[in-house]
């Protein structure tokens, strides 16, 4: 349990004491490192008599209050490789028992930054060899110099890169010869965008990762963070078609970062029309439907507007109005 949790320090201290009084063994992480990973591990004897491990990994906190207005994703799995790695992470947190690696997980500060740079560089190699290469990342911030340098290199190699960055971004997109293939957008709406998603085309063998870390030095080098792969092809397709494609189509709440460091509204939003990803996902949740059985990728089975990037903004088709309250959006922009 992390005692230095923003806005929740006093609450977490109370919970730690209450849990200890109830007989629960509470650990407070590795000295000198804030624990920011979101993990749970369950070991149980199933009805067939076998002992199995189950793991829950997510992008958001175990907090019923923030769960009401943060957007997050999580995975519940009994995959042997993932549950074994989660077990190793808990051994590291509780007994300082380090492992050479925690594959298939990316764990900070152990190897996450190095692995992310390797994944970006792999896309650059694919692009140079004429293979399918693309990167999409949805994070809260992009300010880590080595990551930014790798993204610039991938852009020069021919990789198409879309970054959905709610907050601070020190990378400048659209600079000829440096970042001409990189596009950056920020979406601030009724719900606080908190999920971290990383997509790599990988020459056609797509990989999707979720996790707790942003591309910031504090996340990559000063905290215990975990990013995990989605192995199930159906889940990967759903994240790509239902979530990422919708965020890239937003024109109501999106702001596009220019090469001059300034944000502007997409062109199609200036006439009062456009598409809101948060409204769209709410409608999808209310209808109980998903796109897990459809084709995914460059063409979504959803009626999500197609996106056309232009030097001065984004053009897209209309999908109705948004009624998101400005007061909540202002708060979400500041968190």
Written account of the structure:
By secondary structure, this protein is of the alpha+beta class. The chain has two domains: 91 residues, Endonuclease, Chain A; 228 residues, Endonuclease, Chain A. It has eight helices and 17 strands. The strands form four sheets. Strands 1, 6, 7, 8, 9, 11, 12, 13, 14 and 15 form a ten-stranded mixed sheet that branches. Strands 2-3-5 form a three-stranded antiparallel sheet, covered by helices on one side. A hairpin with a 5-residue loop joins strand 14 and strand 15. About 10% of the residues have low confidence.
- Poorly predicted runs of 5 or more residues: 292-325
Q: Please tell me the total number of domains.
A: 2
- C-alpha Rg, in Å? 20 Å
Series of H and E elements: HEEEEEHEHEHEEEEEHEHEEHEEH
CATH superfamily membership of the largest domain: Endonuclease Chain A
Secondary-structure-based class equals alpha+beta
Portion of residues in beta strands equals: 15-25%
End-to-end gap: 22 Å
Shape: globular
Q: Would you state the CATH class of the largest domain?
A: Alpha Beta
CATH fold topology of the largest domain: Endonuclease, Chain A
CATH architecture of the largest domain: 2-Layer Sandwich
Q: How many helical elements?
A: 8
Number of β-strand runs:
17
Summarize the biggest pleated sheet.
10 strands, mixed
State the helical fraction: 25-40%
What value does the average pLDDT take?
84
């Amino acid at each position: 349990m992390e005692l230095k949790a923003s806005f929740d320090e006093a609450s977490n201290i109370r919970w730690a004491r209450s849990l200890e009084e109830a007989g629960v063994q509470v650990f407070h992480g590795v000295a000198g490192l804030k624990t920011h990973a979101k993990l749970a591990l369950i070991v149980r004897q199933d009805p067939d008599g076998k002992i199995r491990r189950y793991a829950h990994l997510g992008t958001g906190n175990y907090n019923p209050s923030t769960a009401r207005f943060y957007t997050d994703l999580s995975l519940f799995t009994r995959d042997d490789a993932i549950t074994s790695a989660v077990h190793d992470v808990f051994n590291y947190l509780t007994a300082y028992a380090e492992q050479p690696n925690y594959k298939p997980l990316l764990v900070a500060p152990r190897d996450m930054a190095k692995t992310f740079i390797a994944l970006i560089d792999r896309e650059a190699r694919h692009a140079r060899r004429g293979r399918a290469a693309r990167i999409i990342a949805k994070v809260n911030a992009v300010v880590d110099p080595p990551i930014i340098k790798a993204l610039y290199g991938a852009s020069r190699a021919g990789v198409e890169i879309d970054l959905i960055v709610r907050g601070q971004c020190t990378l400048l997109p659209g600079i000829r010869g440096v970042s001409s293939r990189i596009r950056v957008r920020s979406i601030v709406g009724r719900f606080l965008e908190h999920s971290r998603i990383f997509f790599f085309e990988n020459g056609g063998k797509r990989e999707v990762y979720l996790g707790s870390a942003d591309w910031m030095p504090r996340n990559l080098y000063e905290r215990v963070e975990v990013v995990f792969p989605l192995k199930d092809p159906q889940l990967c397709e759903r994240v790509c078609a239902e979530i990422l494609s919708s965020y890239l189509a937003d024109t109501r709440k999106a702001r596009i970062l220019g090469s001059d460091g300034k944000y502007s509204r997409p062109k199609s939003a200036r006439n009062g029309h456009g598409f809101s990803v948060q409204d769209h996902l709410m409608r999808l949740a209310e209808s109980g439907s998903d796109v897990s059985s459809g084709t995914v990728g460059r063409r979504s089975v959803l009626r999500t507007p197609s996106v056309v990037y232009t030097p001065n903004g984004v053009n897209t088709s209309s999908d109705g109005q948004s009624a998101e309250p400005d007061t909540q959006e202002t708060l979400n922009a500041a968190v």
